[in-house]
Amino acid sequence: MPEKTQQFASDNYSGICPEALEYTVKANQRHETAYGTDPWTAKVSDRLRELFEIDAEVYFVFNGTAANSLALSALCQSYHSIIGHELAHIETDECGAPEFFSNGSKILLGGGDNGKLTPAAIEQLVKKRSDIHYPKPKVITLTQATEVGTVYSRDELLEIRNVADKYALKIHMDGARFANAVASLKVKPKEITWQCGVDVLCFGGTKNGLAVGEVILFFRKKQAEDFDYRCKQAGQLASKMRFLSAPWLGLLENDIWLKNAGNANERAASLERQLNGLPGLKLMFPRQANSVFVQMPPHVLDHLHQQGWHFYTFIGAGGARFMCSWDTTEESVQALVGDIKAAL
Ligand SMILES: *Cc1c(COP(=O)(O)O)cnc(C)c1O
Question: pTM score > 0.70 for this model?
Answer without folding.
Answer: yes
